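One chain is below:
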Amino acid sequence: MLPASRRSFLAASAGAWGLGILGNLSGASRSVAADDDFFATQARRREELWGLLGDLPPRDRKITSRLIRTEKADGYTLEWLELDLNGLESVPAVLLLPDKRAAKAPGLVYIHAHGGTYELGKEELLRGRAVLPAYAPVVAEKGIVTLAIDSWCFSQRKRQADGRQGESDAFKEMLWRGRVLWGMMMYDEVQAVSYLTSRAEVDPARVGAFGLSMGSTKAWWLAALDPRVKLCVDLCCLTDYEELIKIENLRGHGLYYFVPGLLKHFQAHEVNELIVPRAHLSLNGRRDRLTPPDGVERIRDHLMPLYRRHGREADCRIELFNCGHEETPEMRKLVLEWFDRYLVG
């Protein structure tokens, strides 16, 4: 049984989030009773998902920030920040402010990958990586205010010289203390949404989440947990858990990925169901063993009828490409189209 304070927080959050989605769909010509039932179930399941993530700081915890420095680049300004998101350790972050943007601009939470590159966190937005050209020029050109934070154990939050050992120790210590590393990661990303939407430059009605690899999984979990995310774009990690077990590749994902008791309550398609009917673009590689294609198709086949039921079939696209764990030019083209349609437009 969850503590009373935790249960009340989850119930209040679920109710508020469910009402938020209903409000966005109030003009649709569909059965109100059917929608009420769907969103009530969705809110209850969202509460259940939060309940699997261990002992978390209060969801309404006040966020404070400290500006470390500003830096001018070609077409944008960077604010290097230190955020207090969780009360346990400070969270280094970078906010990209395009020179040309609307008075109330769209916002994006950019979530970095894992890849065993513990020295690379928020900086991925600016540098990219071998399998992902940098997104900073893209979001700057489109006028999207973009926030990236260091995840637990990465970049300035790296705990030991041996990053993998530091992550392992953090995972184990958190379990002892009733916490779950994945839960604390997701809590920080939800708080990042709160910080981003609090900025005067950002239109809180146009906020998206984007990531590749670990960033992909965090993007669709974030959209599932937080309906303020209006667009979810995930690349190369829409993983069906049972299919991953079937092909015997649990070793492909790090310790951070595993939530105690998850499969007693949720499969991946059921987590993704909590995003319906908000916009969701998922692009994956057929030759990527982290994302078995049969599992991607299973998730797609589960979600598409739900989007169709809500008259939003065009708002969900789940594709497989003939590639591995990487973003291809064709994928980038689709990402930019969805940014234009759901954030910029």
